[in-house]
Specification:
The chain is α+β, with helices and mostly antiparallel strands. The chain folds into 2 domains: about 200 residues, no CATH class; about 200 residues, no CATH class. Helix content is about 50%, strand content about 20%. It contains 13 helices and 12 strands. A 6-stranded mixed beta barrel has the order 3-4-9-6-8-7. A two-stranded antiparallel ribbon has the order 2-10. A hairpin with a 2-residue loop joins β3 and β4. α10 packs parallel to α13 and α12 runs antiparallel to α13. InterPro entries: ABC3_permease_C, Lipoprotein-release_system, MacB_PCD. It is a multi-pass membrane protein. This is Membrane protein.
């Protein structure tokens, strides 16, 4: 057995329960365990929040979105759409016309984002992460229907049981020269209400889904589209399909995946996670000062033992190694306990959702959790660094004990 490890473990397992140094070592171990557990839990919560945001956006946005690099819209043709559908991995192509418009219901009105979509938009997975009420239907060309966000419906006071009031959409157009009639300055059309969705405030308070033909007619768009949304087949990598689409379309178009469509939001979550990791690691470092104090006091108490070891031929490096390993044993024991407890708490929360968000209207009832092995790895690495930093000074002091003075 390694001599330095054997002696360090004997110090740690000391039977003198009333020894103040032993008590301080246990306190240091508990501090490391609590700090490690907190770090694992908080990082897992941030992972869960990131996954939740992705899921919420996936309920409304496409896996891949094609937009023109220059300008607001681009023309599409049957041949162009067929060339996209022919790409390996493309299951569905949804045509989209999106712009701001004025929506009126009764005496109330507001500016909303009108999103005209083809029928393929309303697949079986739509709004899977959110709440939906009513019918997932956009009506017919003769009687178009709209699907409203909960926020839009609330601000307009929309009553789905009211058969007398309908929605009316207004969109400005270029007036004819010399015309003074205000009716020539906008297009308008009537809509029924078929359903309400709730996925995220940014969508709920702004977006209204309408049939593609309705938006095309209201905006006089003809064959122009503002974007195309692509759904890939289940057996294909989204990244591979994105690469094939970009290769076909060239530099005139951008092809963005879900993360790229909301890069700012996801980047903000990752930055917050990084700062929380740094903050909790700093707190963990403060908790590890107990290791420094316990080792320093142990070095003072065991000066006679060190002198005996040196008299028996122990080198300074061996003495230093004993105290470094003593610190590592304290930290490693606390870290293992903290990692196990953190994993157990995260597993219970992920499985049973014991801790509620306390918001009845939330998409999820409890705090989301997702454990990633790299979080455990970085927690362990940071703890090793902190332990070595806290143990080095006491170990150096112990190795410089004068043998003659203490024998």
């Amino acid at each position: 057995m390694n001599i330095s490890y054997f002696i360090a473990s004997r110090y740690f397992k000391s039977k003198k329960k009333r020894n103040f140094i032993a008590i301080l070592s246990r306190i240091a171990m508990v501090g490391v365990a609590v700090g490690t557990m907190a770090l694992v839990i908080v990082l897992s919560v941030f992972n869960g929040l990131e996954d939740l945001v992705r899921g919420i956006y996936a309920s409304f946005d496409a896996e891949l979105k094609i937009e023109t690099v220059k300008g607001k819209s681009f023309e599409v043709s049957g041949e162009f759409l067929d060339s996209l559908r022919a790409i390996e991995g493309v299951e569905q192509v949804t045509e989209v016309i999106e712009d701001n418009a004025l929506l009126r219901y009764g005496e109330e009105q507001m500016v909303i984002t009108m999103k005209g979509v083809s029928d393929s938009f309303l697949d079986k997975e739509r709004f899977a992460q959110g709440h939906f009420s009513g019918e997932l239907d956009l009506g017919t060309p003769e009687n178009p229907s709209a699907i409203l966000g909960r926020g839009v419906a609330f601000m307009l006071g929309v009553n789905p049981d009211n058969e007398f009031d309908n929605l009316r959409m207004y969109y400005p157009k270029a007036p004819r020269a010399g015309s003074l009639d205000p009716r020539n300055m906008y297009n308008s059309a009537r809509l029924d209400v078929s359903g309400f969705y709730s996925v995220d405030k940014s969508f709920d308070d702004n977006y209204v889904l309408v049939p593609l033909d309705f938006a095309q007619s209201l905006m006089d768009y003809g064959v122009k589209r503002t974007s195309l949304e692509i759904k890939s087949t289940a057996n294909q990598s989204t990244a591979a399909v994105q690469s094939r689409l970009q290769g076909l379309l060239g530099d005139r178009f951008s092809v963005k995946n879900t993360d790229e469509q909301h890069a700012g939001m996801l980047r903000a979550i990752r930055v917050e996670k990084l700062f929380v990791f740094i903050t909790l690691t700093f707190i963990l470092a403060l908790a590890s000062f107990n290791i420094f104090f316990s080792l320093s006091m142990l070095a003072i108490e065991k000066k006679k033992d060190i002198s005996v070891l040196k008299a028996m031929g122990a080198s300074n490096s061996l003495i230093k190694s004993i105290y470094l390993k003593q610190g590592i044993i304290i930290a490693a024991t606390g870290a293992v306990i903290g990692l196990v407890l953190g994993f157990a708490i995260c597993w219970v929360q992920e499985k049973y959702g014991l801790i509620s968000l306390g918001v009845s209207s939330s998409v999820v009832d409890s705090y989301p959790i997702k454990m990633i092995w790299t979080d455990f790895l970085w927690t362990a690495i940071s703890l090793v660094f902190i332990t070595l930093l806290a143990s080095y000074r006491p170990a150096s002091i112990a190795s410089r004990v004068n043998t003659i003075e203490h024998l």
